[in-house]
Design goal:
It is a single chain. The chain is 6% helix and 48% strand. With 279 residues, the protein is mainly β. Strand 9 and strand 10 form a beta hairpin. It folds into 2 domains: 179 residues, Immunoglobulin-like (Sandwich), CATH 2.60.40; 89 residues, Immunoglobulin-like (Sandwich), CATH 2.60.40. It is built from 2 helices and 19 strands. Strands 3, 5, 6, 8, 9, 10 and 12 form a 7-stranded antiparallel β-sheet that branches.
Amino acid sequence: MKKINLYLLMAFLFLAYNSNAQLEFKIKFDFDTERYIVSVIPQATYTEPQNITGTGQVTIKVPTNEFIPVDIVNLLEGMKWEANSRNDAPSESPEYDYISFALQMQGLGYPDYEEGVELPLFSFQNAFGCTGDSKVYLVDNETDPFMPPNSENANVGNTLTILGAGGDAYAGLYNGGVASCDPQNPTSTAEELGFAEYSVFPNPVVDEINVSVEWNGESADAMIQVVDAAGKLVLAEPFDIVNGKNNKKLNVERYPAGSYFLYLVAEDWEVSLDKVTKQ
C-alpha cells in the first residue's frame, strides 16, 4: 500500500507542473577503467522536492552480436539500474542490437541535479571487450528507426521522470550520444573539438536554413546532415570547418513540412545541432 501511495503522489505532483524537458543524456568510454559511463547533464537546477525522481530507462544500440553488458555499477545512492530487455537486429535496424536498462527503486530518488553539471548514473563493460566498429550509441528518441511503434512492440528510448520537469525530462543527446572504446578513434566531446557556439535560423523555416558555427579548434572536413523524423537522411552537404566563424546555407524548399534534425559530422566525431520545423 505504501508503494502504491508513493506512485499516486508522484502522479499528482507531476500534474501540478508543466512538461519541460531538461536533461541531456550522455555516454562516454573511460579508458582508465575500460567502462562505459551513462550520465545526464541537467539544463536546470532541481532542489528538493523538485528533484524527486520516479522512473527511468536508458537504451543503447550496439553492433549486432558483439555486445553483452556486464558488471553494471550504480553510481547514485538508491538508484539501481538493470539491463532488463534486449532486441537483436530488428527489421527496422538489422545491423544493431538494442539493449535497455531500467531504473529499479524502492520508492523515490532524490539526486542532486545542478545546471550544467554532469551527473553519472551507472557504468558497465562489454563481455566481449572492444570489438567491431567499437562504437556504442544512445538511442535518439526523435530519430531512431526502432522507436515505438515498432515491429517487436518493444519499449525502447531514454527517459527520466523528474518532478521539476513535469514528467519525462529527456531533452536530447549530448554530442550525438556516441562512445568509442577504440583509442585510435575516440569520441571527442564538443568542447574538446573546439565547438564554441552555433546558431540555426530561421526556425520554423520555409525555404533556406542558415547555420553558423563558431569553431576554436583545428580545421576539419565535415558534413552537414539533415535527417527527417523517420530517421532518414534527406540531405548531406560538405561543410569545411576552420578556426573562427563558419557559415552555411541549406536549401530545404523541396522537402515536405515536418520536423528535421541537423548534425555536423566528421570522420571521427559527430555533433547534434538543432531540431527545425519545416513549414
